[in-house]
Design a protein that fits this description.
By secondary structure, this protein is α+β, with helices and mostly antiparallel strands. The chain has helices at 8-17, 25-33, 36-45, and strands at 3-5, 54-58, 61-66, 72-74, 83-86, 93-97, 102-105, 109-112, 118-123. Residues 7-42 have low confidence and may be disordered.
């Protein structure tokens, strides 16, 4: 299981790039610099996200799971989530934040939000970020 880190700078860079696609080199280096076992320990303690959902977490507590495709869904209790994981095999998920920046989570991809506040999720039937 891999997790990506989204900081305010990354979210801003993604939004400025036009579609909020991939994680920046800075965030990728930060994720690689973390001990490999830190993600494993965290994932082992948190409840698993069942297929075909996109799950949001605050620490080790699941705050919500979403599976419908084709429209923006409000996060409700997941607005304070600090990370998410997309268990879907072929569908990307877009997460919009309170500052209107958007990231794209590829299939089987996880993100740590690092202080950014998610507001909506859109699960696409596309297997690629656009």
């Amino acid at each position: 299981m891999r997790f990506r880190t989204a900081t305010a700078a990354v979210l801003t860079a993604c939004a400025m790039a036009g579609s909020g696609l991939a994680v920046s080199a800075q965030a990728a280096q930060a994720a690689q610099a973390a001990p490999a076992h830190s993600h494993t320990a965290s994932a082992a303690a948190r409840p698993s996200c069942p297929y075909p959902y996109v799950c949001f977490y605050n620490g080790n507590t699941m705050t919500g799971k979403f599976k419908d495709t084709g429209y923006w869904q409000k996060l409700g209790a997941s607005r304070k989530a600090n990370g998410a994981f997309n268990t879907r095999h072929d569908d990307v998920a877009y997460v919009r934040f309170s500052n209107y920046h958007t990231i794209c989570m590829r299939p089987r991809d996880g993100w740590a939000f690092n202080g950014a506040h998610p507001t909506h999720v859109y699960i696409s039937t596309s297997s690629r970020c656009h």
